[in-house]
Amino acid sequence: MAGPSKRSWNSLTVLSGFIVPKGELANTPDVADDSGSDDDEDGDMQWLDMNEIDDANAGVSVAAPKRLCNQLVHVRDKFGRVHRVKGRFPLQDPWWDLSVECRKSGGNMYLTTGYPEYRLNKNPSKDLILLFLKKYDVHPQHIEAFHNALQREPSLQEQPLNFENLCDIVEQYGKLNETTEAVSKQMLSLINFTGREESQALLAPTWLRFGPKLLPKRFYGLLLSKEERLKVLDTVTAQEPWKLGFGPIMYWEHRFIGCEATLDAFKHCNLLERFPPAEKDAIYIYDFIKSKCRREGHTFVYEKALHRRTFGDHNIVDRVKALQFLVDNKITVQLEGKVSLKRYYDYENNIKGGIGELLEKDKISKWMIDSDDLQGVFGEDEDQKRAAEFICKNPVTVMSGKGGCGKTYVVSKVFKVAHRQILEEEAAAEREEERCLNETDSLSRLEDMENSQEDQEGAGGEGIPEGSQATVSRSGKYEKEDSIGAILLTAPTGKAAHLLGKRTGLKAFTLHQVIWSYRNRKGDGWKFGDVRALVVDESSLVSVQTFSTLFGILLKHSCLQKLVLLGDVEQLPSIEPGNFLTDMYHSLAPIGWSIKLRTNHRSESKLIVDNATLISQQRLPEFDQERHFHEVRVDREDMLSSVVTRLLQNGRANDHKTSQFVAFRRKDCNIINEVCCKHYSQHCIKNAKNRSWFQVGDKVCCTKNANISLYVDPSVTPQPEKEEEKDKEEGKEKGQKSKKSGNDVRLCNGEIFFVVEDTTHISEKGKSRRWLTLDDLERQIKVDYHEVKSKGGLKHAWARTIHTYQGSESDTVLYVVGTPTRHQNWQHVYTAVTRGKKEVYVVTSPGALSTSVQTLPIFRNTHLRNFLVNVKISSYSVWFLC
């Protein structure tokens, strides 16, 4: 391998060598920086739709992502020089030869600019082979005996000792005598079952080389795929690498889910030169469509924009042929001068089809909730009365309104009545069924008395024995108890779901919890199988992909009859492509299935609501200290720290349990969190090793959904049945998690906690384990520190970005507008101020607020509204005009 070499064209250094094992070098502490870690976003469930979930359950390969952290390692080149390198390395053992592009960062430190290429060392030393055996738990005495045999036995020296021949040499070693035979079997077992990385690498050298760059998060999982699947992947990488740039082709042709490399990844691998002309043109156009949709929220782009688009490093040879290639391979859909990514077209089209199916169900078997019990419940609020009537009568209702207008109050009252009516109907049905069974039993007894003895013997064994009937009945009852019932309350984030459940008094779930449950269901029964009504709160946060997946699952596998969407159409839409709530609201308004609640029922937030209305009209808000809407001037960007310090010292955010800083930029959040951490907890947010530092008194939040181990008192005997039930609820295999930790808890993205205790427990074996006790003001949980930090993405939470805090609320909100930018518009300011229930502070420079309020959001090009406006309803007859 070559040592560091300069590339003059971009001032990069290509560093080649291998990673020095930990502990080999003196005074080299292990340093990991969690600030730049990849986010696996709750595993693979964030990007699987219903069809892909079904295929994954049927055995199709899923490229599950793996979280990678920035780490400081030591790389030794062929000249023996050791270099400190900071980057992400999926494989770190010294028998992996690597090559990675770096930039010099002072002294002998290098910072990687991407991911490494790997090759398995073809000529390892004996010491390296022995180190390999040690890693995979071969007994030290067996390693020493094997090493001695290698030196003295000629039969073991016939083949060169390397990873390719290692198993053969170990087998040959086993033939020496009876003792070595037993040792050989044990060694082979450990090598084959725990040393899979190396054996798999021998099967797929091309994937080993390019995989870390092409699909860095999914490289390792794919490396450990089944042998035949890995060979397919290696063949594609070697012979047709362009296919890896198109996920739909990998899905339809080779049955891989989630395998799609970016254009930049191919550039870093220098693989574009292997692309045929049409495929090379296509990947440039495809990359442009993806980036534009992701950046601006579109689900389609206009074809004329693609014909005008030029690329600095590539001249399109045949634009028409490239576009046709994308259509032919089910990557895009072209319709009336619009080019859509097929997956987004399908999501929106499936939502339209699902609404049609719901209406057809309503036409055949209408579910009318009796509204007589709601008389007088909503006082003089006519909007609430109409909204309740809509939910009672219509299969679909979209309700929009600002915080405090009573959206969840209406839902709570209507579905409490519906729940009571459902229980009455079920009780009546059970009584009728029991009456029919009694009549049948009486008739059977009369027939038995009339039948002859011979007839009775002839009929014996054909019916279900009495004991069996009782078992079936008990089984049916058990399944019913497992069901969550007919009404399913959901929200896109854990915090929003928690608030919805708290306000309604019913159990609420995140959308992804329901999807997880579907993926991991066992047998024919499913806990959400009895659902008749779906309520989705904070629908502006919901993406078309997530809703399409959930909606499709419930239509197919439950008894869904009603859909209720709650939210605020003025708020920010999902950061993912699409404009779900706005499209649903405006397309269904002409037929009277959408309603806006206009009356504010929070007297303390009247000015907040009035100012939110002004902001939505692109007008500046009215500041009034007596009515708790304040302006805090900051003249320069570098003064933010001092302004926040002054606010804290003056008691403006004295209680961090009821107040929340919100900012547009993550950079501003970091500054605020640093100031707040020193004010509330008297320490910095990071320690000397640049790792996040959490102590008692900190305000923290989870940024990922995860199952985290709970502390179990060793003196208390665990209850396996309850643990298994919890695992089942969270979508895990029965007992899988409980075997590992004894108990676990599901923490959701967006949940805010306060650290109230930090303890370390020593096990009987002498192993220490750190536990944090977290308090969300309603419960306290004691969780594994390392798990909640890595799997749950634990972060300090005195300041949150507006996108991550949307769906939550506090008594006092302090919004930092920040430097004016075209990316921040009136919807960001509107969403931020409506997070406050009682008091709002707007921290802004003189022109920043005005610029943001007067900036229009980018109009999102979507199909959903056009799909839905073609729904015509007349006397509950439905036609879809394609």
Order of strands, widest sheet: 16-15-17-18-14-19
Query: What Rg, in angstroms, do the CA atoms define?
Result: 31 Å
**What is the overall pLDDT average?**
86
User: How large is the share of residues in beta strands?
Assistant: 15-25%
The major pleated sheet works out as:
6 strands, parallel
CATH superfamily of the domain at 367-433 and 481-597: P-loop containing nucleotide triphosphate hydrolases
Task: List the quaternary state of the chains.
Answer: single chain
The gross shape turns out to be globular
**CATH architecture title of the domain at 367-433 and 481-597:** 3-Layer(aba) Sandwich
Structural class: alpha/beta
CATH secondary-structure class of the domain at 367-433 and 481-597: Alpha Beta
* Straight-line distance between termini: 61 Å
Spans of at least 5 consecutive residues whose pLDDT stays below 50 are 6-10, 35-45, 452-481, 720-742, 872-882
Give me the CATH fold name of the domain at 367-433 and 481-597. Rossmann fold
The count of helical stretches stands at: 33
Question: How many β-strands, per DSSP?
Answer: 33
